[in-house]
Design a protein that fits this description.
This protein has helices at residues 6-16, 27-37, 55-63, 75-87, 125-132, 156-165, 172-182, 196-217, 221-240, and strands at residues 45-49, 67-72, 94-98, 111-116, 136-149, 185-192, 244-253. By secondary structure, the chain is α/β, with parallel strands linked by helices. It binds S-adenosylmethionine (SAM).
């Protein structure tokens, strides 16, 4: 895919920075993934990679007594995560930082729970699994979500969109085979996040945000086209949401 223009990113972030979260997910799914981990240490050391504005960081802070380092490369998302952390009085045990998830700011072998909702695909799942494994202590857990095909026969329109946006996307079986090939992880479980996790805190506020931004960008047809393309993704999900979804994978690092 051609790299989008700076103007595209300006408008994209004008939409995304105003959202409660930057990808599909919700508290119930985070709780379900945590339950698949089984027993964690009383105050687990948690890394939340590609945290965006911190939606799942706050869920993890609520669902565990963990010490959390949340990391994202986009500074305005991190500022918003920091604002939410401070507003929740979570400062003593939760920190959000700007950084690169290929080099988390923690020592190898010290992380009890490595969490990544909707961001592993930036590295590619195989690279993410290999890069993050050394940061986990033996017996530590890796929970991540990833876009997957739910149907093998999607209509051409939806297949072509994903082939353009994310050609490496595969199905659950493809991801399980990849996890097996990388090695060093035991699968604890996996599940498809419910459709409400796409709408409640993501696409519904995104639709409202796009509508609110229309007057601002009305004088610029190219900007309007960017808003149309973002809205098109929502429309596609409304029509073809049964063909693809987000799968939560819960893995345990072997060796304990
Ligand atoms: C789809 S969003 C998901 C955000 C958040 N986890 C959520 O579900 O709301 C993906 C996030 O990954 C971040 N990201 C992409 N590449 C990154 C990298 N190399 N290091 C850190 N963050 C990265 C993006 O800035 C973005 O916030």
């Amino acid at each position: 895919m051609a790299e989008p223009s700076p103007r595209f990113w300006e408008i994209f972030f004008d939409v995304y920075e105003a959202l409660p979260r930057q990808g599909p997910g919700n508290r119930a799914s985070a709780a379900r993934a945590l339950a698949l981990c089984g027993e964690l240490p009383p105050e687990p050391a948690i890394l939340d990679l590609g945290c965006g504005a911190g939606a799942q960081t706050l869920h993890l802070a609520e669902l565990t007594a963990g010490r959390i380092v949340a990391l994202d490369s986009h500074a305005p998302f991190v500022s918003e995560a920091q604002r939410r952390i401070a507003a929740g009085g979570l400062g003593p045990r939760v920190a959000a930082r700007v950084g690169d998830m290929t080099a988390p700011p923690v020592a190898p072998g010290t992380t009890d729970l490595l969490w990544c909702e909707g961001a592993a695909y930036f590295l590619g799942i195989e690279r993410a699994l290999r890069t993050w494994q050394p940061f986990l202590r033996a017996g530590g857990h890796l929970c991540f979500t990833e876009a997957v095909w739910l149907r093998s026969d999607p209509p051409a329109e939806v297949r072509e969109m994903w082939e353009k946006e994310y050609p490496a996307m595969t199905d659950v079986a493809g991801n399980l085979a990849l996890i097996e090939r990388v090695g060093g992880y035991d699968l604890r479980g996996h599940f498809t996040v419910p459709d409400t996790a796409w709408w409640d805190d993501f696409y519904t506020p995104m639709e409202r945000r796009i509508a609110a931004l229309r007057p601002k960008y009305a004088p610029d047809p190219a900007a309007g086209a960017v808003l149309d393309s973002i809205a098109g993704e929502i429309d596609l999900h409304r029509r073809f949401g049964d063909c693809y979804g987000y799968e939560f994978f819960v893995l345990r690092r072997g060796g304990a």
